[in-house]
């Protein structure tokens, strides 16, 4: 590590990061705003009062965090250069598939 002042720690590996050497990752997770396709007959068959009543009962049992998570949540992380490379190569942390064949 250089003699540059400590700026922060990596949110993945917790190693110190010198000022100006971190990478910022911002993520937003939000509900898909698109409505599913519905016919006029489907819309007419909906009992909106009952649907609203059912929804309110469901919401009453949820915490504020649960409600927020169902709509929108934002995150910001500081990464060191090494973790930044790892993150870019596999942002979702999915298991890698093995190659088929011989090379």
Task: Give the percentage of residues in beta strands.
Answer: 15-25%
| Low-confidence runs | none
Shape: elongated
Output the radius of gyration: 23 Å
Number of strands: 4
Q: Trace the largest sheet across and list its strands.
A: 1-2
Give the averaged pLDDT, no decimals. Answer: 87
> Secondary-structure element sequence?
EEEHHHEH
Report the structural category. Answer: alpha+beta
Give the secondary structure arrangement, pairings included.
Elements: E1 6-9, E2 16-18, E3 23-30, H1 40-45, H2 48-60, H3 64-69, E4 72-79, H4 81-89
Antiparallel strand pairs: 1-2, 3-4
Question: Overview of this structure, please?
Answer:
- It contains 4 helices and 4 strands, in the order βββαααβα.
- The protein has 103 residues and is an alpha+beta fold.
- Strands 1-2 form a two-stranded antiparallel sheet.
- The two termini are 38 Å apart.
- The mean pLDDT is 87.
Key phrases:
103 residues, alpha+beta, 4 helices, two-stranded antiparallel sheet, 33% helix, two-stranded antiparallel ribbon, 4 strands
Task: Tell me briefly what this model is.
This protein is α+β, with helices and mostly antiparallel strands and 103 residues long. It has four helices and four strands.
């Amino acid at each position: 590590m250089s003699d540059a002042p400590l700026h922060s720690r990596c949110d993945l590996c917790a190693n110190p990061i010198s000022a100006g050497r971190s990478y910022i990752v911002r993520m937003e997770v939000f509900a898909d705003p698109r409505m599913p396709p519905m016919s006029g007959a489907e819309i007419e068959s909906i009992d909106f009062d009952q649907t609203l009543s059912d929804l309110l009962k469901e919401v009453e049992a949820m915490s504020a965090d649960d409600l927020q998570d169902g709509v929108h949540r934002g995150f910001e992380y500081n990464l060191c250069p090494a973790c930044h490379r790892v993150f870019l190569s596999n942002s979702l942390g999915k298991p890698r598939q093995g190659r088929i064949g011989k090379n």
